[in-house]
Amino acid sequence: QVQLVESGGGLVQAGGSLRLSCAASGRTFSGYAMGWFRQAPGKERELVAAISWSGSRKYYADSVKGRFTISRDNAKNTVYLQMNSLKPEDTAVYYCNAGVSIATMTSGNYWGQGTQVIVSS
């Protein structure tokens, strides 16, 4: 089992920045590829960014390339999502996921509870 707890969401104006954190506990964090998904009202959950267990491979959705950066600190069992130049369309609940497949862009078995991000225009 892996327990995931997200933090760092909030309300920000368009053009602003937020950094999301996901703290993991339980089974060995460093063995999992990690991902950030988001779900906006009325829309399906989508993969935003993912990082391999070593940090050597990263994936970004086209909609966030150049604005978001995913990183991880295996010593702290934490994965981050730095979000810059935020747009109203980034408004969603953001979920941390452990065990994501970068190759198939499918989620793993473990989810956090989600953190709300609201970007005002």
Describe the structure.
- This protein is mainly beta.
- Helices cover 0% and strands 50% of the residues.
- It has no helices and eleven strands.
- The strands form two sheets. Strands 2, 4, 5, 6, 9, 10 and 11 form a seven-stranded mixed sheet that branches.
- The radius of gyration is 13 Å and the shape is globular.
- It starts with a strand and ends with a strand.
- The average pLDDT is 95
Helix and strand sequence: EEEEEEEEEEE
Radius of gyration from the alpha-carbon trace, in angstroms: 13 Å
Number of discrete helical segments: 0
Write down how many β-strands occur, each being a DSSP E stretch of 2 or more residues. 11
Helix and strand layout, with pairings?
Blueprint: E1 2-7, E2 10-13, E3 18-26, E4 34-39, E5 46-51, E6 58-60, E7 68-73, E8 78-83, E9 92-98, E10 110-111, E11 115-120
Parallel strand pairs: 2-11
Antiparallel strand pairs: 1-3, 3-8, 4-5, 4-9, 5-6, 7-8, 9-10, 9-11
Features of this protein?
single chain, 11 strands, seven-stranded mixed beta sheet, about 120 residues, mainly beta, globular
Give a short synopsis of this structure.
The protein is an all-beta fold and 121 residues long. The protein has no helices and 11 strands.
